[in-house]
Write a structure and sequence with these properties.
two-stranded antiparallel sheet, mainly alpha, globular, two-stranded antiparallel ribbon
Length: 432
């Protein structure tokens, strides 16, 4: 045990990051539990595109395993990756259903996106984009992601729903909402009493409470052999078409800024940014994202991205790649124990996401609210993420307003060349 602990210490530099193996293990479990929903939601989202549910289930788990292992072993960062929400819906409902394309066409676009990301990462383009974001917008991204995560939790449990107004309170008498509220109180109490692993324990206890309530459905079997995924199901004949070009651009753009936002936001909250405000090992982290997207497309799933739910593991103390390795291991186990992980209701994970939203809010005190050319873009960044249901749209509003305000205030010199370039890209995306 001592030798194993010594290896983990040397490889992940645990003590240098103020953590230990036990904390990293717990953090990895917590991150997995908050994002395990993607194992079911992603296949359900891609199924209307004509894809086989179990094949996509396998592809979802395997792509998460590979990408998260690269993040943990190569970048030594506590971030997990999996096929992203939003882009999977674009895959199915825009590319396949609205444009009338095959799912093979959409997979080809994802594959090309992954290859382009690998090249952009190799030439430091994506890292340069991260570094070009203004400091106050970086801080606002962390807060905005917190609001976004909390909103995802509230929506997943139907605590807030779309109704007669844009948003309204859900039916608090329903079993799912009641379970989520009970879970929120359980997790909150554990946090208030400084219980280690409060979020993870909260998910487990809420899942158990859901059994007598009829919300948690016990599986009939624990072990199920995985189905073989798709393999190189691409539409090569359409690779150079204009439709392919436009779809690849949208995949590229949204994924790039979703990933950048997640890396910056969670790193800011964990106080992992370097003294000059950079994400540590950013190039290696972005490489994990590119590898995951390319590998995922080969197996038959939509774009793989860094998950904001990684903030749940960071909140539990995860600071190194060991957290990611644990999460990847659990995705691997889920391939064979899918019924067990599938039984965890969204009402049990929602409280963890809501409370992570609270944790992410703390960096709001570091934003410069006295300079309106800084505070207004920061505010638009953080408020538009949950309202537009998109990290990239929040960053878009922040960067464009930053450039416009600096120009109209006669402070053009404060805008870097790369910030100008990012603003132009956002404008192109809006009008294409």
């Amino acid at each position: 045990m001592g030798k194993k602990q010594g290896f983990l210490e040397r490889f992940f530099k645990l003590s240098a990051h103020g953590t230990n193996a036990k904390t990293e293990l717990l953090a990895g479990f917590t991150t997995f539990m908050t994002m395990a929903y993607i194992l079911i939601v992603n296949p359900l989202t891609l199924e209307p595109a004509g894809m086989d549910f179990m094949k996509v289930f396998t592809a979802t788990a395997l792509s998460a395993v590979v990408a998260t292992l690269v993040m943990g072993l190569y970048a030594n960062l506590p971030f997990a990756l999996a096929p992203g929400m939003g882009l999977n819906a674009f895959f199915t409902y825009t590319v396949v259903i609205n444009m009338g394309k095959s799912f093979e066409f959409a997979l080809t676009a994802v594959f090309l996106e992954g290859i382009i990301f690998l090249l952009m990462t190799f030439f430091n383009v994506r890292e340069a984009i991260i570094n070009a974001l203004p400091d106050n917008i970086k801080k606002a991204i962390s807060v905005g992601i917190g609001l976004f995560i909390a909103f995802i939790g509230l929506a997943n449990a139907n605590i807030v729903v779309h109704g007669d107004t844009i948003l309204q309170l859900g039916n608090i008498k329903s079993g799912e909402v009641l379970l989520a509220l009970i879970g929120l109180m359980i997790a909150s109490t554990l946090l208030a009493r400084n219980i280690k692993g409060a979020l993870f324990l909260g998910i487990l206890l809420t899942t158990l409470v859901g059994i007598p309530m009829g919300i948690t459905k016990l599986p009939t079997a624990l072990i199920q052999m995985p189905t073989a995924p798709y393999f190189f199901n691409f539409a090569w004949s359409e690779m150079f078409s204009f439709d392919m070009l436009s779809v690849v651009f949208i995949f590229l753009f949204v994924d790039m800024f979703d990933t950048v936002g997640a890396l910056v936001g969670v790193s800011t909250k964990a106080k992992m940014l370097t003294p000059d405000g950079k994400v540590p090992n950013a190039k290696r982290a972005l490489f994990a994202d590119a590898v995951g997207t390319t590998f995922g497309a080969i197996l038959g799933t939509s774009t793989v991205t860094t998950y904001v739910e990684s903030a749940a593991g960071v909140a539990e103390g995860g600071r190194t790649g060991l957290t990611s390795v644990v999460t990847a291991g659990l995705f691997a186990v889920a391939l064979f124990l899918s019924p067990l992980f599938i039984m965890i209701p969204s009402a049990a994970t929602a409280p963890a996401l809501i409370l992570v939203g609270l944790f992410m809010m703390s960096t709001i005190t570091e934003i410069d609210f006295h300079d309106y050319t800084e505070s207004i873009p920061a505010f638009l960044t953080l408020i538009m993420m949950p309202l537009a249901y998109s990290i990239s749209e929040g960053i878009s509003f922040g960067v464009l307003s930053y450039v416009l305000l600096k120009v109209t205030s006669g402070r053009v010199k404060e805008i870097s060349v790369l910030t100008w370039l990012i603003a132009v890209l956002f404008l192109l995306k809006m009008f294409l």
